[in-house]
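Exercise 7. Given the components listed, write out the predicted structure of the assembled complex. Treat all entries as one system.
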Amino acid sequence: MTLSYTGIRVRDLARSIRFYQDGFGLTERGRGTMTHGGRFVELEDPSSHQRIELNWYPPGSPYATRYTVGEGLDHLGFVVDDADATVARLLPLGASIALPVWTERGRSRIGFVRDPDGIWLEIESRIRRSPARVGSRG
Amino acid sequence: MTLSYTGIRVRDLARSIRFYQDGFGLTERGRGTMTHGGRFVELEDPSSHQRIELNWYPPGSPYATRYTVGEGLDHLGFVVDDADATVARLLPLGASIALPVWTERGRSRIGFVRDPDGIWLEIESRIRRSPARVGSRG
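Answer.
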């Protein structure tokens, strides 16, 4: 028994593929068509191997209901080298600011953006200590 | 840059930990408290290494908004040995049927259940061919 992936629903499949590939470097692992005409594209992070599946439903499908961003999906978590730079890079790709980047307990920089469908993405980078402090307990 | 996990929001942390641990064998990887009082528990699938983070917000938190199951999180995908048996086992753990298990193109058994918060979970098992057919193109 395995947890295989997280499926998110998207309203424009091409837009979302581009956003997650160009924005985060996810790569396509497979795609297909559902019996009722929906389409899915599975994307994987080549380093962490975490997977998301983009799900798109055609007009008229019983699943093409009104798109509501709910509270069930809290956010997708991304760890990056530089949260501020990543957020700035994502904006022209279709992201919008949800919570501006802040410093969390002196340990990391964290911000939240919305993807093109409004899904919250956490963008976190760890603050590097200066070399002199490595190994210290300070 | 890595996709680290999917964060889902839950309304009863203990209930959800039990559901995902007992229901799917996910194991705890870490937990903590957010600066504003929220709590998170990260769970990992020991075989696929896919991770979800359970997020809980206390009453009064700016994030403890009305809980809406939206369309952004389509579903979490699980691959199991026997979809019918798994669905039956999940019901007394707090799941409810969303779509009863059906046979998909003769290749797999697929059903959807709702977790205790109403999040859709896909439960899929591959149909094993009889040994005589292994390697055939039929």
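Discussion: Residues 132-138 of chain A have pLDDT under 50 and may be disordered. Residues 98 and 113 of chain A are 5 Å apart (CA to CA).
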